[in-house]
Design brief:
- The chain has one domain: Alpha-Beta Plaits, CATH 3.30.70.
- Helix content is 29%, strand content 38%.
- The chain is built from two helices and six strands, in the order E-E-H-E-E-E-E-H.
- A four-stranded antiparallel sheet has the order 1-2-6-3, with helices on one face. It has a two-stranded antiparallel sheet with strand order 4-5.
- A hairpin with a 4-residue loop joins strand 1 and strand 2.
- It is globular and about 40 Å long.
- It starts with a strand and ends with a helix.
Length: 84
């Protein structure tokens, strides 16, 4: 599991993204974000399927959970990290 933070210049906010390899864990993270007060307008879950890379190796699929967290970016990061 990895976590990425991105500053959004247009809104002066911050997006936190956790990458998961198991859907159940990603869904657990979304539930914990809801419990912490983040709403559906702030949370996005995207599934990315496995594929074959240019060198012929298989890259397994993943699930990304992104949160438009703004001033609560630290909270979002802790929740995503704890879900793994």
């Amino acid at each position: 599991m990895t976590i990425d933070r991105q500053r959004i210049d247009a809104t002066q906010g911050e997006k936190v993204t956790g990458t998961f390899f198991e859907r159940a864990i990603a869904e657990k993270a979304v539930g914990k974000l809801h419990e912490a007060g983040f709403n559906d307008d702030q949370i996005t879950m995207t599934t990315l399927g496995g594929r074959t890379a240019e060198d012929g190796t298989f890259q397994r699929g993943r699930i990304e959970v992104s949160v438009l967290a703004d001033e609560r970016a630290d909270d979002a990061e802790k929740i995503l990290a704890a879900a793994s």
